[in-house]
Write a structure and sequence with these properties.
mainly alpha; single chain
Length: 85
């Protein structure tokens, strides 16, 4: 079930960044986000870069009600859409 959730996250992140889910997965596994950053809109890339380089900001983002709701949906599993539908 967790693989299914991760695949769904990679797919969604890829759509947002304009890259394939496999590219997102490779970036996460390698810790090299340069491909993703180049594919993103400049303002999105800037926010992403700030978040990954600032643990306090990342914690703040993950603590937001929206992020918590999304994490709850993923942790509960759900339908074929990885809990997103």
């Amino acid at each position: 079930m967790q693989k299914k959730m991760m695949d769904s996250l990679f797919n969604q992140a890829g759509k947002q960044a304009g890259v394939s889910a496999e590219q997102v997965k490779q970036s996460v596994n390698s810790g090299d986000f340069s491909t993703l950053l180049r594919a993103m809109k400049p303002e999105d890339a800037k926010r992403f870069h700030q978040a990954i380089n600032n643990p306090d900001l990342a914690k703040q983002i993950l603590s937001s009600p929206q992020a918590q709701a999304l994490l709850r949906r993923f942790s509960q599993g759900g339908d074929q859409n990885g809990g997103l539908g």
